[in-house]
Amino acid sequence: MEHSTIAAIATAPGAGGIAVVRLSGPESYAVAAKVFHPANPAKRVEDAKGYTALFGHFMEGEEAFDEGVALFFRAPHSYTGEDVVELSCHGGSAVARRLVESCIAAGAAPAAPGEYTRRAFLNGKLGLTQAEAVMDLISADGRQGAALANASLNGALAKKIGAEKDALTALQAHLTAWVDFPEEDVPALEDAQLVSTLTAVKGELDTLIRNYDAGAVLREGVDCAIVGRPNAGKSTLLNLLAGFDRAIVTPVAGTTRDVVEQAVRLGDIRLNLFDTAGLRETEDAIEAEGIRRSWKKLDEAGLILAVFDGSEPLTREDLALAQRCAGRPAIALVNKEDKPTQFDAEIIAGDFAMVIPVCCQEEGSRRVIAAAVARLLGTNNIDPHAASLSGQRQLAAATRARDAVAGALDAVSGGFGLDAVSVCVDDALAALCDLTGENASENVINEVFERFCVGK
Ligand SMILES: Nc1nc2c(c(=O)[nH]1)N(C=O)[C@@H](CNc1ccc(C(=O)N[C@@H](CCC(=O)O)C(=O)O)cc1)CN2
Ligand SMILES: Nc1nc2c(ncn2[C@@H]2O[C@H](COP(=O)(O)OP(=O)(O)OP(=O)(O)O)[C@@H](O)[C@H]2O)c(=O)[nH]1
Ligand SMILES: [Mg+2]
C-alpha cells in the first residue's frame, strides 16, 4: 500500500472545455479541503460521501482563481482503490497547472507516469494485462484497435490465460502424484489424455501468437512503402488513398524525388504511407539519392505496395523490384487497368503475396486495395471481442509457454517419462504466470508502467 497522496492533470494537454486534476491517496480529502471550497457553506469536503459531487471554488491560499466541480470517491471504491478526489476546472493548461501547484502546496506529491494505474494494479483493481490494456486504449486511434484493448481491459486475455493455466495445473497435480508416489494407487495418466490436454493448450496459445501481428497492426497501424519504377502511378495511388491531392502527379518520369509521407485510414487500419522516387538507373545525383531512400523505405516497411505500369511491358527494373519483394508482405498493383494490358503479371506472381489489377485514377480501386491489405495483414480475421496479446512482453511470455508445452508433447512422444513432462509443464505454468503478472517482479512492473503518461 502506498502512503503518499499524488496529484496530476488527468486530461490531455492543450485547450479544452474542462480539465481534471486527480488526487489519490490517504490525504486526498485533506488536500482537496485546502484547495477547494464548496459554494454551499453547509457542505464540508471531509464529509463528502463517495460518488457525490460538489460545486465550489479552487483556491490558492485565500485567492479563488476558478470555479468548478469536485467528484468524490471513497476507498476502496475508486479507480486506484484509494481515496480519490477529482477536481474539474476550466480547460486550458494554465488553470489546471495552477490547481496542481495548489495541491502540491497543500501536501500532495506530483504523480509519476502511470502511477494511478500502478496503484490500481498494486491494490488488486486491475491485472497486469488489464493495466497494459488501459495504455493501449488511451493510444488507440481506430475503432478496431480500441475494441481489442477494451476486450483486454474487460479481462478477455486474463480469462483465456487463466483457463489454460487451470488445465495445466490439473494435469500437473496428476503428474506430481504419479511421479512422487508411483507405488500408490494413483492411476497412470493415459498418454492419449495427456496428449489431448497439452495439444488443446498449445492450440490456444498458437492462435494467440498467430494473431499477434494483426492485432498490432490494428492497434498501432503499419508503415507502408509505395514503390515502383517512374511513371507507374505511385503518387496517383498515394492521392487515391489519401483522398486529396497530396503529391505532385505528372506524365514526366521522375516527378517524385523525395519521400512523401501521409497517414491515411484504410478500412480498420492506419497506414503510414511513404510515396517514393521511381526506381531506375540514373546519372542524376539528386534522383539517385531519392532512389536510395526508396529502397530503404522498402526494406523498413511493414507493408509494401509495389506499383507496376500495366500498359507497358515488364522491364528489368520491374524484375529487380519483384525480387526485392520476395518473402516480404508485398502486394503487386498492376496499374492503368483502363488501358490495354502489355504487362505479363505471371512473371512476377511468385514474388508477391497477391497480384491485383487496379486503376489508381478510379475511386473503386481504393476498396479493392483495402480488402487486399486487410487479407494480407490478417486483420479481417480478428474478432475484436476475443482475447489478444499486446506488446513484446506478452508475446514473449506466451511464446515461452507455447514452446514449453510443445516440449512436454515431445517428451511424451519421445517416451522420456512423466517427470520430464512435468518439468516442461512447470515451465509453461511459470511463463503463463509471468504473462498475467502473478508474481511479477518489480522490474517487470516498472517496465509496464514506464510506457504510461503522467496522469494515467
Ligand atoms: N471521472 C472519471 N472517469 C473515468 C475514470 C476516472 O478515473 N475518473 N477512469 C480512469 O481510468 C475510467 C473509468 N475507470 C474507473 C474504474 C473503477 C472506478 C470505481 O469507482 N470502481 C469502484 C466501483 C465499482 C462498482 O460500482 O461496481 C470499485 O472498484 O470498487 C471508477 C472509474 C474512465 N472514466
Ligand atoms: N491511364 C492511366 N494513367 C494513370 C493511371 N495512374 C496514373 N496515371 C498517369 O501516369 C502518370 C504518372 O503518374 P504518377 O502518379 O506521377 O507516377 P509515379 O509513379 O508517382 O511517377 P514518379 O514520381 O515519376 O516516379 C501520370 O500522367 C498519371 O496521370 C491509371 O490508372 N490510368
Ligand atoms: Mg511520383
UniProtKB/TrEMBL annotation:
Keyword line: Cytoplasm, GTP-binding, Hydrolase, Magnesium, Metal-binding, Nucleotide-binding, Potassium, tRNA processing
Chain positions recorded as Mg(2+) binding sites: S235, T256
Signal peptide limits: none
Cofactor(s) demanded: K(+)
Domain TrmE-type G stretches: 221-381
Residues where K(+) binds: N231, T250, V252, T255
Source organism, top-level taxon: Bacteria
Cofactor binding note from Swiss-Prot or TrEMBL: Binds 1 potassium ion per subunit.
Protein residues bound to GTP: 231-236, 250-256, 275-278
The enzyme's E.C. designation: 3.6.-.-
Entry keyword annotation includes Cell inner membrane: no
Cellular localisation: Cytoplasm
Primary location group: cytoplasm
SUPFAM superfamilies linked to this entry: Folate-binding domain, P-loop containing nucleoside triphosphate hydrolases
Binding site for (6S)-5-formyl-5,6,7,8-tetrahydrofolate: R22, E86, K125, K456
Pfam families: MMR_HSR1, MnmE_helical, TrmE_N
HAMAP family from the UniProt entry: GTPase_MnmE (MF_00379)
Function: Exhibits a very high intrinsic GTPase hydrolysis rate. Involved in the addition of a carboxymethylaminomethyl (cmnm) group at the wobble position (U34) of certain tRNAs, forming tRNA-cmnm(5)s(2)U34.
Family that this chain belongs to: Belongs to the TRAFAC class TrmE-Era-EngA-EngB-Septin-like GTPase superfamily. TrmE GTPase family.
Subunit and interaction comment: Homodimer. Heterotetramer of two MnmE and two MnmG subunits.
Protein name (record): tRNA modification GTPase MnmE
Protein species of origin: Faecalibacterium hominis
